[in-house]
Structures are given as structure tokens and as C-alpha cells.
Amino acid sequence: MVPTMFLGEYDYKIDEKGRIPLPPKFRQEFRDGIILAAGPEKCILAYSPAHWKQLAESVTTGSFLSSKMRKLNRAVFATAFQLNLDGQNRIALPAPLRQYAGITTDVIVAGANTYLELWDKAAWEQEKADSQAQSWQIIESLEKH
After folding, report:
1. Which of 18, 45, 107, 117 sees the fewest Cβ atoms within 10 Å?
2. Residue 38 bridge partners (DSSP)
């Protein structure tokens, strides 16, 4: 099966119980659940269980004896939550993740290829502008000379 490529951005309002719907085109990918974790840029990362397993395997290939690997494992796995979609295809965003990402009312669900990012709308607008402004510099720095 070809994995879904997550593209686009979707604007939602969080409800009084801290829930948001998933974009309809992505719901099938999360039928077996969804893993939410704190992202490095103050957003929430959302993975399918299959992609989370791949991430976990790549992160845990290092030595357990390394203090850096233990810290990385704590940062990645201790902040993660495994959830299921409810009957209306919503996910309840855990309070610690909402607080971390500064999400209160308006949420942007942004496709990031193999995973989703959930952002506070104002923070997303700033991140999107910064990313777009830097994208060509990043591409040029990746080119082989």
C-alpha cells in the first residue's frame, strides 16, 4: 500500500472539549489511531501508527548508553499520546500539547508529507511566512556543487 502524502492546510476551531476534526481526505490513514507529540517548533506532530513505528525505530537505533539518546527518547516519547478518532472523526487534543503549542481557539492542520502538524493559527501564519522566505536559501544550500 502506498502511504498517504499529507498536503495542504486546513483551518479549524477547537471545540469546548478540546477536539478538532481531521481533514476528510486523511481520515482513512488514521483509522487505526493517531499519535500526537510535541514538535520542535511549538506545534503538535500527528503520525499514523505505521509512520510512528518507523520514527521510533530510527530514533532507537542508537546506543541506550548515550545520554543524548536517552534525552532524545524522553523528548520524543514522553510527550506523545496515542489516540483514536471519535465517531465524528475528531481527535481530542491533550491539554499538555495544546498548552505547549499555544493552541486555544483556531487550529491549522498542515500537511508535512508523511505526517501532519497542528498549529495555533497566528503561530502558523508566522511560521509559514518564515519558511517561505527561507525556502530558496535552504534548497540552494542542499544542492551539490
Report:
1. 18
2. 44
Give the DSSP letter of residue 36: E
How many other CB atoms are there within 10 angstroms of residue 74's CB atom?
A: 10
What is the per-residue pLDDT across 103-121, written as a single tens digit (0 to 9) for each?
A: 999 999 999 999 999 999 9
On whether the CB atoms of residues 44 and 116 are closer than 8 A, the answer is: no
**Helices marked H in 11-66 — which ranges?**
49-59
Q: What is the mean pLDDT of residues 38-55?
A: 93
Split into its structural domains, the chain has a count of 1
Q: Residue 74 is part of a domain; what is its CATH number?
A: 3.40.1550.20
| 118 is a domain residue | yes
Provide the 8-state DSSP code for 37.
E
100-118 burial code (b ≥16 CB/10 A, e <16): bbebeeebbbbbeeebbbb
Please indicate, yes or no, if residue 4 is contained in any of the structural domains: no
- pLDDT of 25-44, one tens digit each? 999 999 999 999 999 899 99
